[in-house]
Design brief:
This protein is an alpha+beta fold. Strands 8, 9, 12, 13, 14, 15, 16 and 17 form an eight-stranded antiparallel β-sheet that branches. The chain has seven helices and 17 strands. Strand 1 and strand 2 form a beta hairpin. Helix 4 packs across helix 5.
Length: 297
């Protein structure tokens, strides 16, 4: 059974709200940050109503799972995910039990580190126009959804307002320096390859993903979220084929519904039907179960 959907945690957290993203809220605990993952859902740059039950629980629990799996190869920002350790900072601990993460404070590096193992989505659209992705020249004749011989690193400059901007690697070197750029690229590709193998054993294709990194005392650490349906493109192996639009294991029911509705695309859509919300909850719970081998508590 799905839990109560939460659009914001501000009424349940006795700490200053520092930042409110489309899905995550960041609170200041002094030495650390508290991240609360809400059930808000966005599509086509609009935050939609209503919130999707269990979405935040899945995103947070899945990130915690992956941070643990990758901790030895890549240090991360997690301090703990135990709501009981927060005492009276949280007024409704049961509501927030699976959706909190206490993290170290890092200086964010303003680059979205994107790794693509397959040519699809925005990468495919770039390739059709220029035979390149983020300035990386690619062979002629690639087919949509085809796997690259090697994963490619296609960074984006982070913008807090509007879209992140795809940039060539050389531009990333100018923004953050050659050493950090190379380190982020190599770490990102290594993480992708690890998760791609892990997913393949469970009947899932990890098509592409994005990471965020920060610095603590000059050392690179992984922050934000990792290998969730909001930061990665997962396909069921049995649905994988070339030259088609593959149904991804995420909020695809929401996108499909909106594209097939009479929404004008210039204003916030009407509330989603209950059936679409329920199907989306089921999608998030299913990817969690398939990746971790356990049901969401």
């Amino acid at each position: 059974m799905a839990s109560q959907a939460i659009s914001t945690a501000v009424d349940y957290v006795k700490a200053p709200l520092v930042y409110k993203g489309k899905v995550r809220e960041l609170y200041d605990l002094g030495e650390h940050f508290l991240i609360v993952v809400t059930d808000r859902i966005s599509a086509f740059d609009y935050v939609l109503d209503p919130a999707v039950p269990d979405k935040g629980n899945v995103l947070n629990s899945l990130s915690a799972f992956w941070f643990e799996q990758t901790a030895e190869m890549q240090p991360n920002h997690v301090v703990h995910t135990d709501v009981n350790k927060l005492g009276d900072v949280i007024t409704e601990p049961e509501l927030l039990r699976n959706r909190i993460m206490v993290t170290k404070k890092a200086e964010r590096i303003d680059i979205e580190c994107v790794v693509r193992g397959y040519i699809t989505g925005g990468g495919w659209r770039q390739y059709q126009q220029t035979q390149a992705i983020n300035g990386i020249e690619l062979p002629a004749g690639l087919r949509k959804n085809e796997r690259f011989q090697q994963p490619i690193f296609t960074p984006a400059a982070k913008n807090d307002v509007g879209h992140d901007e795809d940039i060539p690697f050389e531009r990333m070197e100018e923004l953050v320096g050659k050493d950090i750029a190379a380190e982020l690229r190599d770490r990102s590709i290594k993480l992708y390859e690890f998760a791609h193998s892990y997913c393949a054993e469970r009947g899932i294709v990890l098509a592409d993903c994005k990471f965020e990194f920060g610095l603590i005392d000059g050392k690179v650490i992984l922050i934000d979220e990792i290998f969730t349906p909001d930061s990665s493109r997962f396909w069921a192996t049995d649905k994988y084929e070339l030259d088609t639009e593959i149904d991804s294991m995420d909020k695809e029911p929401v996108r499909t519904y909106l594209l097939n509705s009479d929404w004008d695309k210039n204003s916030k859509p009407d509330p989603l039907p209950a059936s679409v919300v329920e199907e989306t909850t089921n999608r998030y719970r299913d990817i969690y179960r398939r990746l971790t081998g356990t049901e969401l508590r």
